[in-house]
Recover the amino acids of this structure.
């Protein structure tokens, strides 16, 4: 059996989520998005067998190859990596969720390419809450304007926000990042936007994200172990 420790690891994660939700005062469902980057299709099969219903991928080509090899597997696919405009055409119809819309030209490409008879593409707006130059995401101060623009696009279903914390073991720094995303979401909802989803938290910081109100956590190494080259 591939990844024999996965069921126990997933159970541990769900137990930790319950504990840290109580600590944060939350009771909403938290969805585990299992990130299978660099692992083969067997990782997806193992995750689904363990009870995971959402798979996250960072690269279009790798994701599509896995999807083509797993046509018999029922699971929801999430694209969580940075997306270039010229890859939008390949993403449409293949991912239930896009977590990384962070600029108008990318959103406009979805608006142009999603067929009018198809369901609108569910997306999250990525926000650079850690203010790191190498990271994608709209700057926090520019989020209100971007949300107003995206609200005009009927082929997009903007469902929430996403962020990544700085790579650090400093829990206070992690918490500040996740708290900022939730605050930005709350401010946007006060202006009339419906943004129920907060995709935040990875293997090294998901417990802090859960305490700050995450509804989706993106876990790879914690579930599958070290990644292949």
């Amino acid at each position: 059996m591939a990844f024999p420790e996965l069921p126990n690891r997933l159970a541990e994660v769900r137990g930790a989520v319950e504990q840290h939700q109580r600590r944060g005062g939350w009771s909403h469902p938290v969805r585990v998005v299992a990130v299978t980057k660099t692992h083969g299709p067997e990782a997806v099969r193992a995750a689904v067998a363990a009870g995971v219903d959402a798979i996250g991928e960072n690269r279009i080509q790798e994701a599509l190859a896995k999807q083509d090899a797993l046509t018999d597997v029922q699971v929801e696919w999430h694209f969580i990596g940075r997306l270039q405009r010229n890859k939008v055409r390949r993403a449409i119809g293949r991912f239930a969720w896009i977590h990384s819309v962070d600029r108008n030209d990318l959103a406009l490409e979805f608006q142009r390419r999603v067929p009018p008879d198809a369901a609108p593409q569910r997306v999250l707006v990525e926000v650079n809450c850690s203010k790191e130059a190498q990271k994608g995401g709209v700057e926090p101060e520019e989020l209100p304007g971007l949300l107003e623009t995206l609200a005009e696009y009927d082929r997009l279903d903007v469902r929430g926000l996403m962020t990544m914390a700085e790579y650090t073991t400093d829990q206070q720094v992690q918490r500040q990042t996740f708290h900022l995303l939730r605050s930005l979401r709350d401010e946007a909802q006060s202006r009339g936007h419906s943004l129920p989803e907060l995709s935040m938290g990875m293997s090294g910081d998901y417990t802090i994200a859960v305490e700050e109100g995450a509804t989706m956590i993106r876990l790879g190494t914690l579930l599958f172990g070290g990644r292949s080259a």
Q: What stands out?
A: Residues 6-224 form a domain with the TIM Barrel fold (CATH 3.20.20.10). The chain has one domain: 6-224. The first strand starts at residue 31 and ends at 35.
